[in-house]
Amino acid sequence: MSRFQLQVNGKPHSVEVDPDTPLLYVLRNDLKLNGAKFGCGLGQCGACTVMLDKEAVMSCLVPVALVGSRAVRTVESGGTRWVPSSVLQQAFLDEQAGQCGYCIAGMVMRATALFEQVASPTDAQIRSWMQPNLCRCGSHLRILRAVRRAADVLAAQPIRNY
């Protein structure tokens, strides 16, 4: 066991875990942040996607020892389904992008990373960027429409709040 200092959603956290413990388990079990979901545990579905600095990562593949001083952001850093805090969250609601909702937190985090790196993504960029995350309900087209809707709204805003 080792002690790690993590910066999660803008707040410092100290955890004592095995260095090989996946970040996903630390978030869910130790910090009680359950937005990132366990899907496959192999980095093949994206349900566990969070952000390290401005990069979308599958937290089931990231040992906590490799996080270091990078900022971790989870879907909990945003609003709630009742009070969305971003254009992106509102677009997911408007497009009814979540059927069962299991993949949505990972989808929102992957799209957030897209908007932080590409100011005005094309449809091809959106499809390519979202490709690593799977939706088993078949909401992919709604999810893509939600990301496109958010991109269009953000393009018209002087201050970006994705």
Automatic annotation (TrEMBL):
Q: Report the PROSITE patterns cross-referenced here.
A: 2FE2S_FER_1, 2FE2S_FER_2
Instruction: Name the UniProt key words of this record, in alphabetical order.
Output: 2Fe-2S, Iron, Iron-sulfur, Metal-binding, Oxidoreductase
Q: Where is the 2Fe-2S ferredoxin-type domain?
A: 2-78
Alphabetized Pfam families for the sequence: Fer2 (PF00111), Fer2_2 (PF01799)
- Where are the annotated coiled coils located? none
- Record flagged with keyword Signal: no
Looking up SUPFAM superfamilies in the UniProt record yields: 2Fe-2S ferredoxin-like, CO dehydrogenase ISP C-domain like
Extract the CDD domains matched here. Answer: fer2
**Which InterPro entries does the record match to this protein?**
2Fe-2S-bd (IPR002888), 2Fe-2S-bd_dom_sf (IPR036884), 2Fe-2S_ferredoxin-like_sf (IPR036010), 2Fe-2S_ferredoxin-type (IPR001041), 2Fe2S_fd_BS (IPR006058), Beta-grasp_dom_sf (IPR012675), Diverse_Oxidoreductases (IPR051452)
Q: What is this protein called?
A: (2Fe-2S)-binding protein
Q: Which lineage?
A: Bacteria, Pseudomonadati, Pseudomonadota, Betaproteobacteria, Burkholderiales
